[in-house]
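#lab-general

N.A. 3:47 PM
ok so I finally got the sequence cleaned up, no stray characters, all 260 residues accounted for. can someone with queue access submit it? mine expired

B.Y. 3:52 PM
send it over

N.A. 3:53 PM
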Amino acid sequence: MAIDDAAAAPLRAAVPRQVTLEGCVNFREVAGYEVTGGGRLRSGRLFRSDGLGRLTPGDMGVVRALGLRTVIDLRTEGEATEGGTFPVAEVPVELHSFPLMDVLPAADELPSWGDPGFVAGRYLAMVEAGGDMLGDVVRVLAGEGATPAVVHCSAGKDRTGVVVAVVLGMVGVPSEVIVADYARSASAMPSLLERLMADHPEASGAVAAYAPAILHAEPDTMRTFVTLVERRFGGWAGLTRKLGVDDAVDALSQALVDRA
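B.Y. 4:20 PM
back already:
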């Protein structure tokens, strides 16, 4: 389902940067969005990405220019072992591993992955199961000198999408803008699928079977997830209390939002 004009307008106005890298397909800035109560997300403070274990020498020059101080890796230990990790020896950063659950479905669940409600339910389960780590992510990003920071998983879509949605919700970014930012991953997913097929030619059938889950980045999925957060926790403020990070939100906002 396409993003409607009302949802797309704030996204077009903000024009966050897509960062072009050879080793990534979904590295982009999260910036420029208006915040409820006044202000905008600062440029160059927060980024989101797919896996960062294949950066080329040229990529490292681009990343250095961003001035990154923090990398938050949401992948499981197995994913990090297989895909590699951010090259801290070449680009010194604080690297934090917060392995949230892998949201890819079991084989018998694949037919359900086209249903935004099903996927949104998986996202809510991630929040409920990984609450301690989500709270830790917020505290890291709110820490003094933590930004510029990048949050990433393997695709930069599901786990990263949930974490970024939570962070944006906490600092007051409107829900439809959160939805639109999430849906921007859709354009990168065909390239990610092509890369997976090339990397695993011996398992092309299995990769193709998971294509619907890999390609899925429907606006209605994030829209439904936001609704579920409202029902389950009473909105972003309620989730903030549930995660025990009330005392970190002001610092998070100061780091990410320009109130001028």
